[in-house]
Hints:
The protein is an alpha/beta fold. 32% of the residues lie in helices and 27% in strands. It has one domain: Rossmann fold (3-Layer(aba) Sandwich), CATH 3.40.50.
Amino acid sequence: MKSPLYSNFANQYDKVIQSNIYNAYLERPSLQALLPKLDGLNVLDLGCGSGVYLQYLLKQGINQATCIDYSLDMVNIVQSKLEQWETKVQVNAYVQDLNSGLPSESDSCFDLVISPLMIHYLEDLNPLFRDVERVLKPGGYFVFSTHHPFADFECSMSGDYFARERIQEEWNTIGEPVEVTFYRRSLSEITAAISQNGMVITELSEGKVSAEVEQIDPERFEHLTKNPNFIFIKCQKISE
Ligand SMILES: C[S@@+](CC[C@H](N)C(=O)[O-])C[C@H]1O[C@@H](n2cnc3c(N)ncnc32)[C@H](O)[C@@H]1O
């Protein structure tokens, strides 16, 4: 399900997430806290968006990156940023619907796969998680974030926590309402997709909002320190 938030409004989205509370002060610091030492790694970024994570990865000295998103607008933003940055690191950015996994990627070539805030757009996690395990080197890490299942249960229409549900909402991320559709699923469904596809969870976090938010928006800070919003999972490919 494509959302205009990531296509028609891709440029606005890129600008807003540089410094907004949910991405800049909650999601990114919480996910980055789970990453291994990045120096020299070959990294795959799934649902790369406008390349905000890529910029961080490059600063940390990665060896090579592959960035995938199904929005051509997002991939174009990544390409134009790469021209500006003039990095010597090899970066391959391309369009692919991750519902179909990673048909263009070879086995065992990445040290690290990241996927910040993308998997809730997939109906079935298994095709992608199967391929993530396949493209990781033995012992490689898969680190992703997604909506916290308990937070998403608040917008359940069925009242059945264990049933996967397609949710349609309007988000004000860019300062005007834009329709977004995603899947709400249980924590068991997420952990099953990990364990049934040859990976183990090595760390799990419910995120921590940065202290600066107390000054920026005290009410939001209070809310985010008391309520889960995202979940962060670090998995490892089981070595053969
Ligand atoms: C919330 S944004 C996160 C972007 C980036 N990971 C970040 O944290 O800045 C979600 C991204 O996932 C992409 N996406 C959603 N569904 C996808 C799919 N089926 N295949 C590939 N990318 C997808 C969207 O186009 C969007 O760029």
